[in-house]
Amino acid sequence: MLSIVPTPLGNLQDITLRALDTLKTADFVLCEDTRRTQILLTHFGISKPTVRYNENDASSVRRCLELLKQGKNCALVSDCGTPCISDPGWKLVRDAARQGLPVTSLPGPSAAACALAGAGFTGGAFTFLGFLPRRSGKAAKLLSGAYAQQHPVIVYESPFRVMKLLELIAQTLGPDTPVVAAREISKVYEEWLRGRAGDVAENLRKRKKVQGEFVVVIGLPETQTQENEEPDLPY
């Protein structure tokens, strides 16, 4: 059995009881980074062999697949959050499913879902883009296409490129485009920056140093949001 196990984004208390049980009963824990995962396992008193899983190495995928073929219970984790969502794992899941090997996915921490819930834009549909292409032209095209669906758009970005992302949003979608930039979700220095894309970029530009991973939620203008809202229906 291959179990996809979400792990805490930063606060270790966010681990689920089911995730702990799955890690405790696994024969092997397949990791994005064995050192990061070992910290988590040690914290909860779990002693299990870890195997490095490299999505970009075909031999690594085959090695992990072979463990599943041998009937081993394998828990797949990434450094934090849910594997396969802008993190390694989907190739192993795909190959295991193709070969009829059992796969299950546990619910748990997800930076995208957490940021969307805290953004206050909408509780309906949204578009998740993960990390945008490095080339600004491709990134702008992808942003425009997603935003045209008239749903909030979620993007991941590093502290080194987040200001460029916000500037690109302002240039591509308009300077008044509302955004929420969630920094270091669930960690000690968690911060939520809300406002127009250009203003949030200016806020960060004034800082001596920008640190922490960002989830940027791009919302619709207020008038457009109101038009898209559906009336409450009686039940």
Give the topology, please.
Blueprint: E1 2-4, H1 17-25, E2 28-31, H2 34-43, E3 50-52, H3 58-69, E4 74-76, H4 90-98, E5 103-105, H5 111-119, E6 127-131, H6 136-147, E7 153-157, H7 162-173, E8 178-183, E9 191-196, H8 197-205, E10 214-218, H9 222-228
Parallel strand pairs: 1-4, 1-5, 2-3, 2-4, 6-7
Antiparallel strand pairs: 7-10, 8-9, 8-10
Helix pairs in contact: 3-4, 6-7, 7-8
> Kindly state the mean pLDDT as a whole number?
93
CATH homology superfamily name of the largest domain: Tetrapyrrole methylase, C-terminal domain
Number of folding domains? 2
Structural class: alpha/beta
Could you give the count of β-strands? Answer: 10
- Helix segment tally: 9
Shape: elongated
* DSSP strand content: 15-25%
Radius of gyration: 20 Å
Stated plainly, the CATH topology of the largest domain is called: Methyltransferase, Cobalt-precorrin-4 Transmethylase, Domain 2
Helix share bin: 25-40%
CATH class label of the largest domain: Alpha Beta
SSE string, helix = H, strand = E?
EHEHEHEHEHEHEHEEHEH
The major pleated sheet works out as: 5 strands, parallel
> Per CATH, which architecture of the largest domain?
2-Layer Sandwich
Widest sheet: strand ordering:
3-2-4-1-5
Distance between the termini: 41 Å
Give the low-confidence spans.
none
Task: Throw out a few tags for this protein.
single chain, 235 residues, alpha/beta, Cobalt-precorrin-4 Transmethylase, domain 1, Methyltransferase, Cobalt-precorrin-4 Transmethylase, Domain 2, 5-stranded parallel β-sheet, 9 helices, 38% helix, elongated
